[in-house]
Each structure stands twice: as C-alpha cells, then as structure tokens.
Amino acid sequence: FHYQRNGRTDHGWRFGDQIGAEWSAGKRWGLLQAGVVGYSRWQISRDTGPGTLDAHAQGHALGLQASYIFLPAKMMLRAAYYKEFGVQAATLASPQGSLLRLTLIKAF
Known about the structure:
Layout: E1 2-4, E2 18-29, E3 32-43, E4 58-70, E5 75-88, E6 98-106
Antiparallel strand pairs: 1-2, 2-3, 3-4, 4-5, 5-6
C-alpha cells in the first residue's frame, strides 16, 4: 500500500493525491518461485491549477512473476510482466500498456 502526494509543477498544476496497492500470489518449487501479480492505483483528490479537469485517474494491472535464487552467488533474479487495463486519465493523457520489470538482488 502507498500514498502519493504531489507538489506543484512549473505550470502551476498540482496533480491529485493517489493511493495504490500491489499484490502477488505464488508457489515455490525449491529455489524457483512463480505466480500472479497485480496493482491498482486511484486518484483520490482532484487536480488543481489553471485548465485542470475535474476527473480522477485510475489504473490497474495483472501479470506473471517468476524468481530464482542462485545460492552460491547469493543472488536472486526476479522478472515480472504486467498488462494494464481500466486506465482512466485525469488532466493529462494516461497511456495504457505493458510493463516488464527485471530485478537483481545481491546479498553481501
């Protein structure tokens, strides 16, 4: 869960506050883990400033994630793919698309 409060831009706009949540459910087979992931975000206050609209943005995503632990190297590699849906824009256009995230973690 996260809460985001935005500052004022150089154009005099302040985009509305947002809340968001990420989730996952997976299964582990030894050093391999795989499952489904997702996130949602909602704008909970309106944008302010000249020319802003009285609309609230939102977006959601669903995807797959896998990770593998390399014990001798004390490393973990994680890959996740998200497909966005239900994206609604507020003042500025909000594109809908896909996200690929790769994470490499090294223990010392």
